[in-house]
C-alpha cells in the first residue's frame, strides 16, 4: 500500500527517490548508523539483524518484495537493524525528509505508514510466537511457508543454514538435518539459490499433523 500511495504523492518530492540494485551480501544500513532514507523492497530478499547482549548477531526478520524498512528514521535518527541482501535485490530509496514532508499534508500516506508500522510489529510478534516455538521441523516448516506463500510460484530466496538457525533459535546442524529430511520427502527443492516449496505438506507439519 505504501508504494501505491507514494507514487500518487507530490511529483516534485518523488524526483528525489531512486532505484538501487544491490549485490548479494551487500549491507544497506547498519544498526546505530545515522539514517537518511526509508527503503522499499522491489525484488529479492534481505535479512534484518540485531546484536545480542552476549555479542552475537541474531536474524530477527526476512524481508521480501513489498516490504518497507528503515521507518524508524522518520522519528529517530538511527537505524535499529542491520539490513543485508540475501541475493540480488532491487530497492527503492526514499529520503526520510521527503516522507516526513509529504505526510504532513497527505492523510493517505500517513495512514499507509501507520499500517506499515503495525504490520512490522505484527511480524515481529509472529517471529516470537510461531518461528521460535515448537520442534525444529515445525519451526522450519513455518518459516518456509511464511516465505513461499508470498509468491505465486511457491518459491523463495534461499538462506544459509546459519541464518535460518539464527532466526529460528536452532543450531545450524539441526537446520541442516531437517532441511535434508524435507528434501528427501519432496517438501523442498533447492536450485540456483531458490527454494521451491510443497505448501500442503509443509502446512501439515507446521500444524503438527505429520
TrEMBL record:
SUPFAM superfamilies: cAMP-binding domain-like (SSF51206), Winged helix' DNA-binding domain (SSF46785)
Gene3D superfamilies: Jelly Rolls (2.60.120.10)
GO cellular component entries: cytosol
Protein name in the entry: CRP/FNR family transcriptional regulator
Matching Pfam families: cNMP_binding (PF00027), HTH_Crp_2 (PF13545)
Molecular function per GO: DNA binding; DNA-binding transcription factor activity
Source taxonomy: Bacteria, Pseudomonadati, Pseudomonadota, Betaproteobacteria, Burkholderiales
Keywords: DNA-binding, Transcription, Transcription regulation
Positions in coiled-coil regions: none
Taxonomic source organism: Aquabacterium commune
Keyword Magnesium attached: no
HTH crp-type domain boundaries: 134-201
